[in-house]
């Protein structure tokens, strides 16, 4: 509709055209912008707003019957000396930046002072008229800004005449939220503030919120700026670097133009078409993938003055306006040999470069181009050919593949199908409604964790797993439970059906001191953290189950196995210690983790923890269970409990269960020595018969001493056979000469 409106020739449009042309005649001031304003459906959903430097603006509508028709003339500036320096439309609103000189300032004063104001006004365009809304001050006492509007945001870019101090950051105005975001390309997001009142719209007060950061920020280096079709701001630096600033204030590097630094008079044209960024600089057309920053194609033009035209609905071609005419360039119909390779194929060669470079003894740098043309390394070439064949199978079914590669394709066909299904699932996640996103994310996380568990757990994969567990904790727990096949059997015990190789990945991999201090934790700790969050009662059983499963995969003395490193129960205890809030059940978890390890030191630590908690019933139960494990552990446990028995009377109700645990090698003298060493020190003189019931008496100790004295000694058992011999003394051996 816009193109049809500007075509001259219909008899019904001549009068309207003439009136529109008269608006351009002198003595009009310089033109600031031709802007399209959203209008009623009867006008073709748009209207034309013309803004001049003096602040005068006109809104024109077009109909096929009457042609161009002036709907409203208005004055944007209130003062006679005010002037508009930049304007844009954001939805149905007109946004402009105007200069407001102070009353006492002469007309030739420098523009360096903070005397600019950014304003907004709604224009409700009807079929015959325009209804004006109130003027809203977005920012006042500000430097000069150039305004660029995306569908939801307005970018404020400092002009070249602004102070060096304030030309270090960009502003992003979110009209619907009345929020202003400050971002610096050298530092990223700085702050975001909602402007509730006009006093908060003062630029100088806004500056005080981050004045300490100003000295650390580098000045802006902007040669050209333009808007992308995704709502971001494209920036080209004087060095030829192309970056994009997103509406949330984050920045991403896209591409570096060739040809060295850009001079002030050099023209750079930017335009986005779908996922492709088109850039014209010094007579060269660059086609760049916005997502990966990869150069798709480069064309040398025979003219330097080129403008991009709007081409709605045609994202696979570019229309160029030149002095010689309008040209269309299609980048979807290029020959198959020059077609850009998929990102996955490009990643194959990049990964191969890193792989071969690490193993090369040569000092020369290996590049992707050398790898493709050298012919020395056939593995990445074969894999790239297979991937291209598989990815373009739908587009070109008849495309053949070498016999050698066909055999390899049959071998890795299952992995390729998994990859394609994963890419399809990612596409579903992007386009799914909010109600279905969670289920898609769970499936996606499950596939990703399963894929990583069946590959080498290096630092990169471990960092990736950490990000997955952090971003999707619940989905990661479900995926881990499914990959290990964790479940409770009928007796309530935790069982798993994962292979020994998977258990190796869970327990092995880089440890904490190997991955650094950047917040990345090993996989075993990630699983323990998930258990602690979603199934804390399973944590001790999981540690015990892991110990049993990895004993099949590793020898007990293997340095690579879990027993050659930090014990698993200590790693689980470390996860418990890092918990932000301590709860009542954490002591019980710590106790169970110590006991499930079945290590002597851990069992003794558990006994001491139970004593500290004064849980005497459980103390005796643990002593009865683990005294049967080894004589040495039996002696340590009994000695510890005997020392407690000497100090207080809490264990008196359990003496009939405690005395049978006395080791065989302990004598009455050894028992009395332990008792005397741990008797509590009294401040008063001891008396033979105390009324207090807290003292140790011989009567309490008598059953134990009788048990020890009546028990046959070790020497008696040693010589028992000889003493019971039928003939005593034994016969003298026969002498020999």
From TrEMBL:
Any one GO biological process: lysosome localization
Superkingdom of source: Eukaryota
Cellular component aspect of the GO annotation: BLOC-2 complex; lysosomal membrane
BLOC-2 complex member HPS6 C-terminal domain span: 346-735
Domain spans labelled BLOC-2 complex member HPS6 N-terminal: 2-328
Pfam family, one: HPS6
PANTHER family assigned: BLOC-2 COMPLEX MEMBER HPS6, HERMANSKY-PUDLAK SYNDROME 6 PROTEIN
Protein name in UniProt: HPS6 protein
UniProt source species: Crypturellus soui
């Amino acid at each position: 509709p816009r193109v049809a409106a500007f075509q001259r020739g219909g008899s019904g449009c001549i009068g309207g055209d003439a009136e529109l042309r008269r608006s351009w005649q002198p003595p009009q001031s310089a033109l600031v912008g031709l802007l399209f304003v959203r209008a009623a459906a009867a006008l073709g959903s748009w209207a034309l707003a013309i803004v001049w430097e003096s602040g005068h603006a006109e809104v024109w509508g077009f109909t096929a019957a009457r042609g161009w028709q002036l709907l409203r003339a208005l004055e944007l500036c209130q003062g006679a000396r005010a002037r508009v320096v930049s304007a844009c439309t954001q939805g149905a609103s007109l946004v402009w930046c105007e200069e407001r000189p102070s009353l006492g300032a002469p007309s030739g004063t420098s523009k360096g002072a903070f005397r600019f104001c950014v304003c907004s006004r709604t224009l409700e365009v009807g079929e015959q008229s325009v209804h004006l809304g109130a003027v809203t001050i977005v920012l006042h006492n500000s430097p000069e800004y150039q305004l660029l509007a995306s569908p939801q945001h307005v970018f404020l870019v400092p002009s070249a005449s602004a102070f060096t101090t304030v030309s270090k950051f960009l502003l992003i105005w979110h009209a619907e939220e009345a929020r202003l975001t400050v971002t610096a390309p050298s530092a990223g997001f700085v702050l975001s503030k909602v402007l509730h009142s006009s006093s908060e719209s003062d630029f100088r007060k806004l500056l005080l919120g981050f004045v300490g950061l100003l000295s650390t920020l580098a000045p802006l280096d902007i040669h050209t700026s333009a808007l992308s079709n995704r709502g971001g701001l494209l920036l080209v630096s004087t060095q030829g670097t192309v970056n994009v600033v997103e509406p949330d204030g984050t920045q991403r590097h896209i591409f570096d133009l060739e040809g060295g630094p850009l001079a002030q008079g050099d023209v750079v044209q930017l335009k986005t078409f779908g996922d492709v960024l088109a850039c014209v600089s010094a007579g060269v057309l660059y086609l760049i993938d916005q997502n990966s920053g990869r150069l798709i194609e480069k064309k040398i033009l025979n003219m330097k003055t080129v403008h991009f035209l709007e081409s709605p609905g045609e994202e696979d071609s570019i229309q160029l306006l030149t002095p010689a005419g309008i040209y269309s360039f299609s980048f979807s119909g290029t020959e198959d040999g020059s077609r850009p390779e998929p990102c996955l194929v490009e990643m194959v060669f990049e990964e191969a470069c890193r792989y071969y470079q690490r193993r090369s003894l040569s000092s020369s740098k290996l590049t992707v181009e050398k790898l493709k043309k050298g012919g020395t390394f056939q593995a990445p070439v074969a894999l790239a050919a297979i991937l291209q064949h598989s990815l373009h199978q739908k587009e070109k079914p008849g495309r053949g593949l070498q016999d050698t590669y066909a055999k390899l394709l049959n071998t890795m066909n299952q992995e390729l199908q998994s990859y394609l299904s994963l890419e399809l699932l990612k596409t579903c996640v992007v386009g799914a409604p909010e109600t279905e996103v969670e289920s898609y994310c769970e499936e996606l996380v499950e596939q990703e964790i399963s894929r990583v568990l069946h590959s080498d757990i290096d630092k990169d994969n471990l960092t990736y797993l950490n990000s997955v567990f952090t971003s999707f904790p619940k989905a990661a727990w479900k995926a881990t439970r499914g990959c290990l096949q964790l479940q409770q059997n009928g007796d309530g015990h935790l069982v798993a059906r994962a292979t020994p190789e998977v258990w190796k990945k869970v327990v092995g991999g880089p440890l904490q001191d190997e991955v650094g201090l950047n917040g990345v934790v090993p996989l075993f700790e990630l699983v323990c953290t998930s258990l602690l969050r979603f199934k804390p009662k399973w944590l001790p059983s999981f540690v015990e189950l892991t110990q049993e499963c990895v004993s099949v995969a590793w020898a007990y003395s293997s340095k690579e196995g879990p027993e050659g490193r930090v014990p698993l129960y200590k790693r689980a205890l470390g996860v418990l210690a890092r918990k932000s809030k301590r709860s009542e059940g954490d002591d019980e978890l710590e106790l169970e983790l110590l006991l499930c390890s079945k290590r002597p030191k851990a069992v003794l630590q558990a006994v001491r923890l139970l004593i500290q908690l004064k849980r005497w019933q459980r103390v005796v139960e643990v002593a009865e269970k683990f005294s049967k494990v080894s004589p040495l552990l039996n002696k340590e446990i009994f000695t510890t409990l005997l020392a407690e028995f000497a100090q207080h009377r809490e264990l008196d109700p359990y003496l009939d269960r405690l005395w049978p645990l006395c080791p065989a090698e302990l004598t009455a003298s050894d028992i009395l020595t332990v008792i005397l060493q741990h008797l509590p020190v009294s401040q008063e003189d001891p008396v033979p018969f105390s009324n207090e019931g807290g003292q140790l008496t011989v009567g309490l100790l008598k059953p134990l001493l009788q048990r020890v004295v009546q028990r046959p000694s070790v020497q008696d058992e040693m010589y028992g056979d000889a003493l019971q011999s039928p003939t005593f003394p034994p016969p003298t051996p026969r002498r020999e000469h």
